[in-house]
């Protein structure tokens, strides 16, 4: 369950996901828009979830199962929680270099105030940092951080990391209607992002079921306004508002593929059907997983999605 995909990524092409957390979601944030659902263990304490050798072995095994045309463009740390909580992240990235595939990390920025976290991320080829807000009050409302985290320290950590990092730096801003899509917040975030000097800034909206189903995407006019404001800062800006596609990689074990992907990446129904077809499987597979309560079904914005159902202990 450590690796999944490759899945089509709007940012990285074909991305082989590495879920270095796996257990019911552990994160320093409990973001209202998170596609993985509610945070089950709100924590900012770094710890070991898997050894670097375990992640290496699972990645090697997964790559060996893929056909030549299915090889990923990136190995991406994107977790059931925050990947930088993994105290072995830097060591694991170093071990995975042997595969000759660029390594990416998608972080919510919550732990960038820690020197060891910044040091681990320095070894990655591509890093995306989260920048949703520019003030403490809105940060607490949308990201809902763990007790003990400080907004100003987080911003300072982002600034220090961005100044020192020599890889491909990206930022991502998730806009939610009525919460952080005001012109005041957008201008402030654009100023913050500009100061980080990323190669590209991404503006996204909820396209998969969020942890709080009341969360909705802003109107198109608002998203366009945000894009215009960001562009005026001089930073290349791209909207992540569309569907990334249905062509999901597979290993030949349809049950594992579905469980591993849905642990961190809700499957839209059309993507699921294509995955089943490519594995020469039918919907009975999904009926079995639904019956065992390993997968749950939900509807968001008129589309059916399938998500991993973690049993709480």
Helix content: 25-40%
- Derived from helix and strand composition plus strand pairing, the structural class reads alpha/beta
- End-to-end CA span: 18 Å
Q: What composes the largest sheet?
A: 8 strands, mixed
Q: What is the domain tally?
A: 1
Cα-based radius of gyration, to the nearest Å: 19 Å
Give the neighbour order of strands across the main sheet: 1-2-5-6-7-8-9-10
Q: Spell out the helices and strands N to C.
A: EEEEHEHEHEHHEHEHEHEHHEE
CATH class: Alpha Beta
Please state roughly what percent of the residues sit in beta strands, choosing from under 5%, 5-15%, 15-25%, 25-35%, 35-45% or over 45%.
15-25%
How is this structure best described in words?
With 313 residues, the protein is an alpha/beta fold. The chain has one domain: TIM Barrel (Alpha-Beta Barrel). 34% of the residues lie in helices and 19% in strands. The protein is built from 10 helices and 13 strands. The strands form 3 sheets. It has an 8-stranded mixed sheet. Strands 11-13-12 form a 3-stranded antiparallel sheet. Strands 3-4 form a two-stranded parallel ribbon. The longest helix has 14 residues. The radius of gyration is 19 Å and the shape is globular. About 2% of the residues have low confidence.
Give the topology.
Blueprint: E1 3-9, E2 13-18, E3 26-27, E4 41-42, H1 52-65, E5 74-77, H2 89-96, E6 103-107, H3 115-122, E7 126-130, H4 136-142, H5 151-164, E8 168-174, H6 183-196, E9 200-204, H7 220-232, E10 237-240, H8 254-262, E11 267-268, H9 269-278, H10 284-291, E12 295-300, E13 303-308
Parallel strand pairs: 2-5, 3-4, 5-6, 6-7, 7-8, 8-9, 9-10
Antiparallel strand pairs: 1-2, 11-13, 12-13
């Amino acid at each position: 369950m450590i690796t999944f995909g490759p899945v089509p990524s709007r940012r990285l092409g074909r991305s082989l996901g590495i879920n270095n957390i796996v257990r019911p979601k552990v994160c320093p944030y409990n973001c209202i828009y998170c596609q993985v659902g509610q945070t089950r263990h709100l924590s900012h304490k770094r710890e070991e979830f898997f050894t670097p050798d375990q992640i290496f072995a699972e990645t090697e095994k997964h790559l060996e199962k893929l056909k030549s045309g299915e090889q990923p463009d990136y190995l991406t740390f994107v977790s059931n929680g925050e990947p930088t909580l993994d105290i072995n992240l830097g060591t694991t990235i170093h071990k995975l270099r042997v595969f000759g595939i660029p390594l990416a990390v998608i972080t919510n920025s919550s732990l960038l105030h820690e020197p060891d976290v910044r040091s681990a991320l320095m070894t990655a080829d591509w890093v995306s940092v989260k920048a949703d807000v520019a003030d403490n009050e809105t940060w607490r409302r949308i990201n809902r951080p763990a007790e003990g985290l400080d907004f100003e320290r987080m911003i300072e950590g982002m600034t220090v990391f961005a100044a020192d990092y020599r890889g491909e730096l990206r930022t991502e801003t998730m806009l939610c209607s009525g919460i952080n899509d005001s012109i005041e917040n957008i201008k402030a975030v654009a100023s913050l992002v500009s100061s980080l000097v990323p190669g590209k800034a991404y503006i996204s909206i909820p396209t998969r079921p969020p942890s709080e189903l009341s969360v909705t995407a802003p109107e198109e006019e608002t998203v366009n306004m945000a894009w215009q404001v960001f562009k005026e800062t001089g930073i290349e800006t791209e909207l992540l508002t569309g569907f990334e596609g249905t062509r999901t990689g597979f290993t030949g074990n349809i049950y594992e593929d579905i469980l591993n992907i849905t642990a961190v990446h809700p499957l839209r129904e059309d993507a699921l059907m294509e995955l089943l077809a490519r594995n020469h499987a039918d919907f009975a597979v999904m009926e079995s997983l639904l019956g065992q309560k390993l997968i749950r079904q939900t509807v968001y914005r008129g589309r059916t999605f399938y998500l991993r159902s973690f049993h709480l202990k």
